[in-house]
C-alpha cells in the first residue's frame, strides 16, 4: 500500500479528495492535516508517507512553510485554486499540480505519474525527476493579488504588462496596477511565450495590448494600459522582438 496524507483546510475539499482517492485500491490515506502547524507537528512525530496531496494556501500560511521546517522525501501533488505558485511548487518535491475542482481523470494521471517514478530497485534519481517535471510546468493563467486585507484573482488575459519598480514587480490591467510576489525572471518561465515578451530588464509585455510600435530612433511600444514610464525594446532584443511579433 502507498501511504498517503492530505494537507487541506477546507473540509468539503478533504471529503471530495478522500472519496476520489478511495477509487485507488493501492492508496491508503493515513492522515488529513488542516494547517501548517498541525502538519509540522505530524511530520516531526510520525513516519513520513510516500505521497502527499497538499493545498497551497492554508489558514495559517502556505504549505511551502511546512517543508521549510521539516524535510521529507515524499513526493507532493499540489492541489489549489490558484496557479501562481507553480514555479515554487516545482522547486520542491512536486511531481504534479492540480487545479481545483479536481477532476478524476486529472487525479488518475497524476497518480500514474507518481507511480512511474517509484523505483523498482535502488533509490529514486530526484535530479532526473526534477528535469522531467520542469519540462511539464504549466503556463500561468491566473494570479492572486492582495488589495489591503482582501484577495483578488486576476486573469492573465487582463494583464497588459508586468514591470519592475523599486524591487517590486507589478502587473498592469485596465483597472489599475497590482503588486505581485514574482520576479520578472520567474515570470518568464511561466508565461505563455507566444503571448508575452520581455522587451528589457524592466518590462514584460502582452501582444494583446500593443497599440503602437515606434521604430525610430529606438523601438518603443505603446500599450493600451501601461504605467507612465516609456517602454523601449533593448537593442539586443530587437531582432527577437520582431520575430516574436511575426509569430
TrEMBL record:
Q: Which InterPro entries match?
A: CheY-like_superfamily, LytR-like, LytTR_DNA-bd_dom, Sig_transdc_resp-reg_receiver
Specify whether Amino-acid biosynthesis is a keyword of the entry.
Answer: no
Q: Provide any one GO MF term from the record.
A: phosphorelay response regulator activity
List-wise, which residues carry 4-aspartylphosphate?
55
Q: Does the keyword Phosphoprotein apply?
A: yes
Q: Which UniProt keywords apply?
A: Phosphoprotein
SMART domains referenced in this protein's UniProt entry, alphabetically: LytTR, REC
Name the domain of life: Bacteria
A Pfam cross-reference name: LytTR
Q: What is this protein called?
A: LytTR family two component transcriptional regulator
What are the leading ranks of the lineage? Answer: Bacteria, Pseudomonadati, Bacteroidota, Flavobacteriia, Flavobacteriales
